[in-house]
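Provenance and format

Records in this collection were gathered into a single text stream. Each protein contributes a sequence line and a token line. The two records reproduced below are adjacent in the stream.
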Amino acid sequence: MFDRFRKKTYASVGTPEFIVVGLGNPDRKYTLTRHNSGFLCVDMLSEKLNFRVDKLKFKSLIADATIGGHRCIVMKPQTYMNNSGEAVRECANFYKIKPENIIVIYDDISLDVGKLRIRRKGTDGGHNGIKSIIYHLNSDQFPRIKVGCGKKPHPDYNLADWVLSEFKKDEQKALEPALENACKAIELLLDNQIDKAMNLYNS
């Protein structure tokens, strides 16, 4: 499902306006886990627009890409989930990008696999990656795209074990169109059309 990415570069001009950051954990063993939904979205975005997220900077793998006419720094923090904010803060400070221009994509256990929830801002909702970003930016005023990764099978199931488990084969089929819609939503958010994105893709 996620092994067909093309390897092409994509040039950018001008000053970066936005940061697009997908959250996840860097080790290969986490590639298809629920907690890596943000990474998977960035991988699909890079495939569709033919750029490579492979430069190590700001404690992240990054790409400098133009998306819908907007120059963006696309990030996959390599800090592990709980310290994602360190990477985002370094990049935001370097390019002087305000929180409102930082789009974060991440997993949400309250949503079924295949569902999306786009928000203009908000609390961390118990997500440690978002908690770290809010702490390091000293702001929760950044738009986010939540990718459904499914609820725990039963209340006593360990949360860490659940989010670090891999999507099942049938779930991968449901996840792929959701990630495609997330990529489309990113372009709308970059054009300041968040209400349209919410109307089209919130489910």
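Adjacent record:
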Amino acid sequence: MKLADMPWPAVQALDRNTPVVIPVAALEQHGHHLPLFTDSLLLGEIVRRVESVLSNRILLVPLTWLGNSDHHMDFPGTLSAPPRTYLDSLCGLADNLVSHGFRRLVFLNGHGGNDVPGRQAVFELRQKYRQRSDLLFLFATYWHLGGSPWETDPTLVQRQMGHACEWETSMILRLSPTLVGEHRSLAPVEPGTPFEPAVRGWITKDRSVPGHIGKPHLATAAKGEVLFETFAKSSVALLDRVCIWDGRSWNG
């Protein structure tokens, strides 16, 4: 069910235990070869596949395309909500839905820069509504949901999401190949090990001059389909768990 297509009486009639899915992505630079809207395009396709499977079991909020992309601001075209502003906007969306009576809220994320403020948002929401025992706040980044696409396609070289990389370039090639510029001649940019296991503060130009991180030269549309299938399947699996949650327990 798509919230944007419904009149308010239809929303009023819904079971308030219906999981509400809030897709969040970004509009930011993706190297020399991919469009600024890459994260939103990819998440939009995953959400489309998820909705086709779960249909009337979830309520889908329109995708929020403005993300926390301050680390990409050295590259023209990037639009960003600063981290605290972004965090507050996620909390505000959740507050709206809680005020309408919904109890199971899932932010489905398609941009790495949203991950830290998104996790903080669901943490703060739980503190705010600490007197409620029937609420579920989740923040999930689609490529962290347990899928291992290289098990289906062993030609995939990367084992984690980069940026405008083998994975993202492959998915855009599958989704809309005319949007992909010359990528076969691009040199790989390794993610590096920046003082691990400590976490280093960074901006993108610390790590990459052209803007990509990973191996876009290895991308193919066939790999993109495997990636879409894997990530849609793992997203459906998570939402299945949300649907059957008993509304009380810690585990799901």
